[in-house]
Amino acid sequence: MFKRFLSVAAVSIALCGFAGTAGAQTWSPEQQELWQVEQQQWKMSAAKDLSWIDSMVHPNLRYWGTGSPMPRDKASLKHWSRFDSDSSTVLHQELFPISATITGNVAVLQYHYMMVSENHKKERETVTGQYTDVLIKENGRWMFIAWAGGDVKKD
Q: What is the pLDDT along the chain (155 residues), one digit of tens a residue?
């Protein structure tokens, strides 16, 4: 996706990552717990373990990805995650935390990511992007209830 700007993007993301990591090192235990939930979701998704959708996503989920014309729900997430899982493989990914704000049982988490994937034709693609996730804590567990973001568009 970012073929000609990959070097610039990698340096920019790395610099943002260092700033975010420094902030994450001073996070409270609850903020660190939240970040671990985020990392676990990405690991499960990369491993094509779609059980994260049932175990980590609230039934009232609404999300709006950069490639979607409108917000979608949990049923749509399940449908498209199966398709995406079958059509590509994540080779490497890295998350760069920016901020974690917690008020009561609601949290807002913001971060950048960089990911390399391979499609069924064995073509590799590197993408970068960002998300703002909203999680709600129910019965002692953080669950995704909303997010917006995704890959940065090609030029």
A: 333 333 333 334 344 444 444 445 699 999 999 999 999 999 999 999 999 999 999 999 999 999 899 999 999 999 888 777 677 899 999 999 999 999 999 999 999 999 999 999 999 999 999 999 999 999 999 999 999 999 998 77
Two tokens, residue 130: 């960002």
Radius of gyration of the chain (CA): 16
DSSP 8-state assignment for residue 103: E
Residue 77 CA to residue 63 CA, distance in Å, equals: 9
| Residue 72 DSSP SS3 | strand
**Count of domains forming the chain:** 1
Alpha carbon distance 39, 35 (integer Å): 6
pTM of the model: 0.81
Would you give the distance in Å from CA 90 to the centre of its chain? 13
**CATH number of the domain that residue 109 is part of:** 3.10.450.50
